[in-house]
Amino acid sequence: MPPDPTPEITVSPAPPPTVPEVECSDAGIGISAAGTEAAMGLRTLSIELVNCGTSPYTVRGYPSVRLFDEALEPIDVNAAPGTNGVAMLPEFDAPPREITLQPGEKAVSGLLWRNLVTDATVKATTAFHLDAAVAQGKPWQQVPLIVPDEINGTRTVEIDLGNTGKLGVQAWTKA
């Protein structure tokens, strides 16, 4: 009698995270992560503001951001307008302009940082969670750090600041 055949075991990879639907705030706007670039330690994350309301929405200036670690503890970061001394990228230092978004229209901004360790006595930090507001003094919104990816469909982003504690913030521009 022949031996029983070995059963085949099929393992399916876990599906990649899906880009969550943008949550529309009471003000009729939503903020989401839109894409990322990384090269030689320089990182950028695009964030997108959509007017998901029914009336025009005007924005001028820079988004406010705050970062949190895996345990949702705040990370001390110097988030400042423009490149904030992180790198020389003229598009990050362009002055803000007033933008009026009609329902369904979008604006974009960017975050700029380096994964750089400059002092071995200071712990490197990584943010796994991001809150953003359209501008200083406006309501905060959670921004899932899930972005589109050409290979996997989507991927999760980490903001790996090293120990510089610096983040450049680009002014809103019309998408």
DSSP, total strands: 15
Measure the end-to-end span. 70 Å
Q: If you average the pLDDT, what whole number results?
A: 89
What is the N-to-C order of secondary-structure elements (H for helix, E for strand)? Answer: EEEEEEEEEEEEEEE
**Domain tally:** 1
User: How many helix segments?
Assistant: 0
The proportion of strand residues reads 35-45%
The poorly predicted ranges are none
State the shape: globular
Radius of gyration: 20 Å
**Share in helix:** under 10%
Would you spell out the secondary-structure blueprint of this structure?
Elements: E1 29-39, E2 42-51, E3 57-59, E4 64-68, E5 78-81, E6 99-101, E7 106-114, E8 125-127, E9 129-133, E10 141-143, E11 146-149, E12 153-156, E13 159-162, E14 166-169, E15 173-174
What does this molecule look like?
A hairpin with a 2-residue loop joins strand 1 and strand 2. The chain has no helices and 15 strands. 0% of the residues lie in helices and 42% in strands. The protein has strands at residues 29-39, 42-51, 57-59, 64-68, 78-81, 99-101, 106-114, 125-127, 129-133, 141-143, 146-149, 153-156, 159-162, 166-169, 173-174. With 175 residues, it is an all-beta fold. It has a single domain (29-174), classed as Sandwich (Immunoglobulin-like), CATH 2.60.40. Strands 1, 2, 5, 7, 14 and 15 form a six-stranded mixed β-sheet that branches. Strands 4-9-10 form a three-stranded antiparallel β-sheet, with no helix packed on it.
